[in-house]
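Researcher: Structure prediction, please.
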Amino acid sequence: IGQYGSSTIRTPNIDRMAKEGVKFNEFYSASPVCTPSRAGLLTGRYPIRQGIHDVFYPESFQGMDPEEVTIAEVLRQAGYATGLVGKWHLGHHEKYMPWNQGFDEFFGLPYSNDMGGLYYFRNKDILFDEVDQRFLTKTYTEQALEFIDKHQQQPFFLYLSHNMPHVPLYASPQFEGQSKGGLYGDVVEELDWSVGQILDRLDQLTLADNTLVIFTSDNGPWKVMGKAGGSAGELREGKQFTFEGGMRVPAVAYWPGTITAGTEPAGIATMMDWLPTFSRLAGATLPTDRVIDGKDITGLLT
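Model: Predicted structure follows.
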């Protein structure tokens, strides 16, 4: 994205978040592939503690242990409405699904968009209409805005988990062929549009000053896919590797009035830090019966 050096892909909304908020230069995912990375994000715990080492597939029987405590469960206990829009990918059998991990509402896909049998879930109902991936990002954005509108009068936690830019790449007709960065660039520019829609809606509802917005990624670029996989710039390797290119990811945070514009924290932070950070900010209680590997980084943000 622009704030991390792209000269071909336009990301004005994410760049605005970075300029007016926090831009991390040493921010790390919990894994170089998506399933364990998301397990680490939601629980604040290293994936290896959870026995999650690799990606789950449609034929997989396993999932994230329901006994794990997620961000959604912690915040729901503090009175937050909790919603997931987008990709889950932590197990698609009933006991592993989002509604058993603290999410009041779910709209999205159970796993990656390169895996067969794609149907949208709306909560526990499956919508047996063919998923047109050209409109995946747009559909998720519309659903996210609906969630915000619905819960604007109460505290809410929205996990907007876009499938893109995972291969195969699709952009809507409005964005296809518009980026100097090729189809991958089209996809990322549409994701930036999505970010802009969220920020605009928060402004319209006068919620911006009371909402922490974070943009980040679950792992680095899938370099074996060539131009369709993205670029890690000067970093070594990408997805599937524990070198910098696989696990050092963009991360920007935006919270007008609380986060000072142009903040660039020194030192390392990880996606596992969000759970203890959100817990502190929301006045919620962290579980004490297990190791939480993440740290409260409120100080880095502010």
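Model: The radius of gyration is 18 Å.
Researcher: Thanks, that helps.
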